Amino acid sequence: MSIRTVRIRDNSTGKLKDATLRSELVPLDLVRIEGEWKDTRLELVKKRIENGVRPEDIPQHWHWDWSKKALLLTEGSLFRASFCIECDGQTQGALMFTTAGHYAELEPDRGRDLVYVDFIETAPWNAKILTDEPRYGGVGTRLIKEAVLISMDREFRGRLGLRALRQSVPFYEGVC
Fold first, then answer.
1. Residue 81 near residue 97, CB atoms below 8 Å
2. For labeling, which of 48, 50, 60, 141 is most exposed (least CB within 10 Å)?
């Protein structure tokens, strides 16, 4: 396991705060993350529905279960890995990626290797689609930045690939 310090924005103060980036997660780590997030995710989705939010404004990933994704780490584990950001004793975001079997689709890099983002999620208390007052900001961007750094390290020149949920397209196009 690799651990290092990264910075995310504490929305209560507007200032950057030290957080921990943990890589080389094992399946039990993903089970733990799901345990941290599940009840809050479901409660926030329930509140949104009770408040009359349109179905298209419920997060498309609300049903994700990181404990089930843990099985993916055991299949093809040489090429699949994940990492997370922790702060204040809780996981603030997680990303699972693959380093083999996916190739760039856009020119001029069509056909070249890339890091493929299988799943990325910020903790439910940080998700703007779930709460009007996210605790931390910049978690998703920090996760993507780390994936780019992994791509650079693998000599993929920063190439990333993913299939974005429709609701997430503005994040990837406008923020990342």
1. yes
2. 50
The torsion angles phi and psi of 30, rounded to 5 degrees, stand at -70, -35
- 71 and 118 in contact (C-beta within 8 Å)? no
Q: Which residue has the tokens 């055991």?
A: 74
Residues of the chain with pLDDT under 70: 1, 74-78
Distances in whole angstroms, Cα of residue 151 to Cα of each of 132, 157, 162: 33, 6, 13
Instruction: Give the length of the chain.
Output: 176
In angstroms, the CA 75 to CA 71 distance is: 7
Sign of the dihedral defined by the CA atoms of residues 21, 146, 142, 113, in that order: negative
What digits encode the pLDDT tens for the residues 81-93?
Answer: 999 999 999 999 9
**The predicted structure's pLDDT at residue 47:** 92
